[in-house]
Design brief:
By secondary structure, this protein is an alpha+beta fold. It has eleven helices and 17 strands. The protein folds into three domains: about 120 residues, Rossmann fold (3-Layer(aba) Sandwich), CATH 3.40.50.20; about 70 residues, 2-Layer Sandwich (Dna Ligase, domain 1), CATH 3.30.1490.20; about 90 residues, ATP-grasp fold, B domain (D-amino Acid Aminotransferase, Chain A, domain 1, 2-Layer Sandwich), CATH 3.30.470.20. The strands form three sheets. It has an eight-stranded mixed beta sheet, with helices on both faces. It has a five-stranded antiparallel beta sheet with strand order 15-14-13-16-17. It is globular and about 60 Å long. The N and C termini lie far apart (about 50 Å).
């Protein structure tokens, strides 16, 4: 079948998504035709064989090779700008991280076009991107999370006194401030006093209209666990970081001091609990395909931090078979889900029995 790999996007995680997309394009299972669909920083879609190579993104200077393309509702084709049909798309592998890709918007477009796609569907994708909604679902599933406060930009600007009171009544320093709907640690800051808190809130509000303020744990360990089609991976432990993993730590660091311990050297009880919580978190938001769940562990307490429904590199580094194994399982699941949806009824005709008015 023809498989479109969609990556890039109008998102602060654009560059990370390029890496995931190019990696995935090189690992589409044999027998399938891979079509790159690159979304530039302004949200315009492009295709062409050049987008399969990382050199295209290193050398590009405000110009885009190949063709400008788009999708249309109720049509499974990828169209050129002039309206010509280029490819009939059987399934899409979503590699777009962050807003406008991971948050349900892209999933909704593909669903309207009638195209199968990998990963979580619209509602689960939106929940996984919105930290407040995510935490509410975790709480409903009785998963432990650190205390937090949700603060909107309007509250901060128009009613800062009430906002400060809400924070004081719930949290103590240190605190960590995050954009509610962003990823890759972008816009995150640590606050040890109110001066730092207000500065961190201002930065976070540059990336989203709402921010999450959490109690920042000290002397804690971070663990990650992927879930692929409902089954947990082995547990990893990021090593060599301070307070929290920054964007640079995750994607730009060349230091051997920032790495991972895999599998994590932990006792079986903690390992089993992390795996159990990972699956419960996955089910709590209704995730599908692959997702990565992040944890914090301090003073004998395990907390679920967040879930990523389109994880970096599709979390392929958790699996012996790498990207090809993950993509193959995700494609199979996507087609199965799509076929099940096609069998549903979408037109309701009222029954008219004997004696009914005509």
């Amino acid at each position: 079948m023809t498989v479109a790999v969609i990556f890039g996007g109008k998102s602060c995680e654009h560059n990370v998504s390029i890496v995931t997309g190019v990696q995935t394009l090189g690992e589409i299972p044999s027998g399938h035709k891979a079509v790159p669909v690159y979304i530039d920083e302004s949200g315009v879609w492009h295709t062409g064989k050049e987008y399969c190579s990382m050199e295209t993104y290193r050398d590009r200077k405000n110009s885009y090779p190949g063709k400008e393309v788009h999708l249309r509702p109720a049509s499974p084709y990828l169209y050129a700008k002039n309206g010509k049909k280029l490819y009939k798309i059987d399934c899409c592998v979503i590699c777009a991280h962050g807003v406008n890709g991971e948050d349900g918007s892209l999933q909704g477009l593909l669903q309207l076009s009638g195209i199968a796609y990998t990963g979580s569907k619209v509602a689960a994708s939106a929940a996984g991107m919105d930290k407040d909604m995510m935490k509410r679902l975790f709480a409903a599933a009785e998963l432990p999370c650190v205390p937090y406060v949700l603060l909107s930009g309007d509250e901060y600007v128009n009613d800062s006194y009430s906002a400060l009171g809400k924070i004081k009544n719930t949290l103590t320093f240190p605190m960590i401030v995050k954009p509610s709907r962003a990823g890759s640690s972008i816009g995150i800051g640590i606050a040890h006093d109110y001066n730092e808190l207000f500065g961190a809130v201002r930065v976070a509000l540059e990336w989203d209209t709402e921010v999450i303020i959490e109690k920042a744990l000290t002397d804690f360990e971070e663990y990650n666990c992927a879930v692929l089609c409902g089954k947990p991976s082995e547990v990893e432990k990021p090593v060599g970081w301070k307070e929290f993993l920054t964007y640079e730590d995750k994607y730009l660091s060349k230091s051997e001091s920032v790495g991972r311990e895999f599998p994590a050297a932990i006792d079986d009880g903690l390992r089993d609990r992390i795996k159990e919580y990972a699956v419960r978190a996955y089910n709590a938001v209704g995730a599908e395909g692959v997702a990565r769940v992040d944890f914090m562990y301090a003073d004998g307490e395990l907390y679920v931090n967040e879930i990523n429904t389109v994880p970096g590199s599709l979390a392929a580094y958790f699996y012996d078979g790498g990207t090809s194994e993950v993509v193959e399982k995700m494609l199979d699941a996507a087609v199965k889900t799509h076929n099940a949806r096609r069998r549903l009824k979408y037109v309701y005709k009222q029954f008219r029995g004997e004696g009914a008015k005509k």
